[in-house]
Amino acid sequence: MNSLGFTLSQDCFVDKGVDYTGLHKQTKSGRPCIKWPSAPDDFTYCRNRDEEMNQPYCFFAEGEKEACAVPKCAAGAEALHGWVADPGTVTHEEPCTPKPTALSDKSSQYFLR
Questions:
Q1: Residue 59 is assigned to a structural domain of this protein
Q2: Contact 50/38 with Cβ under 8 angstroms?
Q3: What is the pLDDT of residues 13-29, one digit of tens each?
Q4: Residue 48: inside a domain, yes or no?
Q5: Is residue 56 part of a domain?
Q6: The model's pTM
Q7: Based on the number of CB atoms within 10 Å of its own CB, is 92 exposed (0-12), middle (13-18) or buried (19 or more)?
Q8: pLDDT in tens, 72-111
Q9: Could you list the residue range(s) of the whole structural domain that residue 49 is in?
């Protein structure tokens, strides 16, 4: 358990991974992700903002994309904007801490809500 009163679990996604903001950047077949065409910087992390696939994916070559090697979260786990808390472990609220832009393609995303 951390100082905020909850336990952080593995980097995983729920549902289709639309809210996934983890740090995976490799496809299921082991290819490294390349920069997203729409990203202003060198953003290479797996995402599924547009629900184009059933899980987070990335580009591995220009115009070529593949599902990423991100595991699906265990049943009952809740995604907390890129991190997962074990069921029933969040015990109190704290002010949100903005993510550094290098970790997210949306700088307004937060670690916790």
A1: yes
A2: no
A3: 988 999 898 899 999 99
A4: yes
A5: yes
A6: 0.62
A7: exposed
A8: 988 776 655 445 555 555 544 544 444 444 444 443 333 3
A9: 20-71
Structure tokens, 8:
């952080």
Nearest to 24 by CA among 41, 42, 46: 46
Q: Which residue has the tokens 């490799």?
A: 26
**Longest distance between any two alpha carbons in the chain, whole Å:** 44
Distance of CA 85 to the CA centre of its chain: 13
Q: Closest by alpha carbon to 16, among 61, 46, 59, 60?
A: 46
| 15 found inside a domain | no
Cα 8 to Cα 77, 78, 85, 99, 108, distances in angstroms: 11, 11, 5, 16, 21
Burial of 2 (0-12, 13-18, 19+ CB in 10 A): exposed
